[in-house]
Amino acid sequence: MIMYREEINLRENQDEMDRARLKIFRQGLELDLLKSRMAEIKQASLEPSNPIQCLAQLLMSKEMSDITIVIPGHDENFKVHRLILSMWSVVFQAMLFGPMAEGDTITLSEDPPEAFSWLLAYMYTGETELPSVELALQVYLLANKYLLAHLKTVCSK
């Protein structure tokens, strides 16, 4: 009889342990599901939701860039896309696709880095908020150089 009670207690303990394991397993599955859902939400928030965001992401990530623009004295090179620059500027179109195409790297010795960076932001995103008059003047000169009439108008306002 004592043996029987011990066996019952052992089985009850085993059943309790099995229930606890099952509960932990279910919680683990729920946690995995929650982690998976959070990853999906995070990914969705990173995915651009319109063409402008797609282009901005291309500029920032440098993904699929096919040309490097070097400005001497500037720490970072600009990794950009021939197609984007050529869509905006016939000057870039000639530089990048014409008979005088210069290869995979272009050096722009005379362009101020901050103004050129802003020019790229304009080309990729349509950004027109210039933070200072000095920068507006520099960007205006670049817009004139690269024949960007709309940008010249923006800078002159």
TrEMBL record:
Residue stretches in coiled coil: none
Matching InterPro entries: BTB-POZ/Galectin-3-binding, BTB/POZ_dom, SKP1/BTB/POZ_sf
Gene3D superfamilies: Potassium Channel Kv1.1, Chain A (3.30.710.10)
Domain of life: Eukaryota
Domain called BTB: residue spans: 65-132
Protein name: BTB domain-containing protein
